[in-house]
Amino acid sequence: MCKKIFNFLGFFCLILQISGCVAFWRPNAGRVDTSAALKPLAPYNGPKARVIIADFQVQAAKATSEIPVALREMLMATLIGTNRFSIIASDKGQDPKNADLIISASVIEFEPQGSGGRGGIGGGGGVASGAFGGLLGTSLNKARITLDIRIIDMVLSETIAESRLTGQAIDYFNNSNAGLPIVDVPLGKGLSVYAYSPMEKAVRICISETARYIATSIPEKYYKY
Question: Fewer CB near the terminus (10 Å): N or C of the chain?
Fold first, then answer.
């Protein structure tokens, strides 16, 4: 009997190690995978760069038509909050020629729930199905969003910087509210359904990292207004 119990416990520990679910034992645990986004930009009170934020394009199958609009609004609000940019918006009567740079973005990955589900780890059953499959499968939720960003000189029509930026978050409980927002701007229509979920964390991480990338990649000569 003791041997059976020992083997049972050993098998259970092996499942936890393989699945990366050691943090399962911490209620309300949430882990953000992109630690660089936790470092805020230094305060800034100098001249600003004038930029246009183009409409976001969508290449991710799970992103609805409202998602790129909400992401663009979040990025604009975040950039304004850095005190480094004047956002030129042609739809408000401003002349686009007043901007030196245009920032374009494509949503190439939008995965609200990349793993988990009632079928076991990864939603596929296997060794974790049965007694532990439902327990572990419903508790693991991994979200991910990736943006392709380009910064273009409008006069020269040249790309001065481009990068692929990802936000990823893991929660072990669906009702977890752990982890403060990285950027405190509204989620907007289309993203509000992900409030207090790993996807919200992933989005905020990605927007924060995108704003940092833009601010640090634009040469000093563009900050002149």
Answer: N
